[in-house]
Amino acid sequence: MTGKWGELTAYQPRIIKLLSKSIQKNRLAHAYLFEGKKGTGKKEVSLLLAKSFFCTNRQDRGEPCEECRNCRRIESGNHPDLHHIEPDGLSIKKWQIQELQGEFTKTGLESNKKLYIISHADKMTTNAANSLLKFLEEPNSDTVAVLLTEQVHQILNTIRSRCQILTFTPLSSQVIQRELEKQEVPQSLAGLVANVTNNLSEALELSQDDWFAQARAKVIKLYEVLNTRKGHALIFIHEQWMPFFKEKNMQESGLDLLLYIYKDIISIQIGNEDKVIYQDLFQQLKQHALRISQKSAANKILAILEAKKRLHSNASPQLLMEHLVLTLQEG
C-alpha cells in the first residue's frame, strides 16, 4: 500500500481525513498510537505522516511534494531527524529508548523538528516503557511520536492516555483486490485471495504462493467432478485431494475455497452476480444455480461448515471428506 493522503483515503478514510486536516492546520498531536491488525497500513501511514511533517514544499491537502530533499531522504530511509525503533530480538530495550532520548537532546540538523516511530510498541520492556513515559510527559512542540502496535491492550495505560489512539480497521475485500490487481495479480486469483484474508501483506504473499494457486485448481476440479462425474468423486478424494491437502491447516483452506464456490451459486440465485468470487467459472456456476434450489445450495454450504467443525474435533480427514462429497452429490 503506497500513495498520498488522497490515494489512501479508500483504505482508512477516517484516519486519513483526521491526519491530513491536522497537517494542513499544523495541529498534529505530540504522540499518536496507531493500533490495528497487521497489513492495515499503520507503517505506510506513519511514513507518509513523516514526509508531510518534514516536507519543505507541502502541497494542497497537506500532501508531501515527494521531490524536496526531506521527502527523498525519508523515502530512502536516511533522514537524520526521523528515528525508527524496532524490537532488538524479542523486545524493545531500555537502552534503545535512552539512545533515542539522547538523539532528541541534539539540535535538529535541518530544523528543530523531530519525529520518531516505534514499531511493535507493545514489545517494550517495563523499563523501556517507563523511560518512554518520561519522554511523553515532557513533549517538545516540534516533536511527534508515532507508536505502532497490533496488541494495544499490552501498552501501559499511562502511555495510552498520553497518545491520540487511531484504530486501523481491516481492509475490505474490494480494497485488497484492487491492490493485488495493481501488482498484476490475475483478477480471478486476486478476487479469491481478497476474500481469504483482509491482511494486505498476507494477501500479496498468498497471491504469489504456488501452493495456493494449485489448491484453487484442486478445489475447482473437485467441484467439476461432483457435477459431471459423480462416480469419480471418492476416487478423486483418495488419489488427488488427500495427497495434496496433507496437513489440517491445508485441509481447512481447501474447505474454505470450496465453500466460496457454493456461496457464489447463492449470490447468482439472489441476483448478486457482482459478488461472485470465482468470476472465471461464472457461466458454469450460473448453469448450476439454475438447476438447484436455493435451499439445496444452502444445505451444501452447511455440509461444508459441518465438515470444518468436525475437522477441528479431530475426525479422520479421509472419512470426513468422503462423507462430505457424498452429501454434496445429493440434490
UniProtKB/TrEMBL annotation:
It holds the Pfam family DNA_pol3_delta2. Signal peptide: none annotated. It is an enzyme of class 2 (transferase). One of its GO terms (molecular function) is DNA-directed DNA polymerase activity. InterPro entries: DNA_pol_HolB, DNA_pol_III_delta_C, DNA_Rep/Repair_Clamp_Loader, P-loop_NTPase. Residues 242-328 form the DNA polymerase III delta subunit C-terminal domain. GO terms for cellular component: DNA polymerase III complex. One of its GO terms (biological process) is DNA-templated DNA replication. Keywords: DNA replication, DNA-directed DNA polymerase, Nucleotidyltransferase, Transferase. It comes from the Bacteria. Its EC number is 2.7.7.7. It catalyses: DNA(n) + a 2'-deoxyribonucleoside 5'-triphosphate = DNA(n+1) + diphosphate. PANTHER family: DNA POLYMERASE III SUBUNIT DELTA (PTHR11669:SF8), REPLICATION FACTOR C / DNA POLYMERASE III GAMMA-TAU SUBUNIT (PTHR11669). This is DNA polymerase III subunit delta'. The lineage of its organism: Bacteria, Bacillati, Bacillota, Bacilli, Bacillales.
